[in-house]
Write a structure and sequence with these properties.
The chain is an all-beta fold and about 110 residues long. It has no helices and ten strands. It is a single-pass type I membrane protein.
Length: about 110
């Protein structure tokens, strides 16, 4: 199966369950990547219980060290406001070879009020 999805905020890996810290009024840009899928995993985003749309359709690219597998990447941009402080952002990777058919990774939005 593909690797578990992982989140990146401003190019830095966000360990599962950690915070994505962003200033109130700014945009939180978060990327989700799942490596080594064949076919690539399908990525979906949720903020709380609501499915949210990515900035662009996900991009799938072949892995340089294993060209028969794919890395899937998707990016969301979330306007940070105080109502969203503490909200859970979740990336769900869907793939038939995962035992539960999908694997999620979550981070919590930490909105810093100015």
């Amino acid at each position: 199966p593909p690797q578990r999805p992982r989140l990146e905020h401003e190019g830095v890996h966000v360990p599962p369950g950690h915070n994505v810290t962003v200033d109130s009024g700014a945009m939180a840009t978060v990327k989700c990547v799942s490596h080594y899928g064949n076919p690539p995993a399908q990525l979906k985003w949720f903020l709380g219980d609501q499915e949210i749309s990515p900035l662009h359709p996900q991009t799938n690219s072949t892995e340089p060290d294993n060209p028969r597998t794919w890395s899937a990447a998707s990016v969301v941009q979330i306007p940070a406001n105080k109502d969203r402080h503490g909200a859970i952002l979740k990336c769900l990777a869907i793939h038939e070879s995962y035992s539960a058919r999908s694997v999620a990774v979550e981070a919590r939005l930490d909105v810093k009020c100015k």
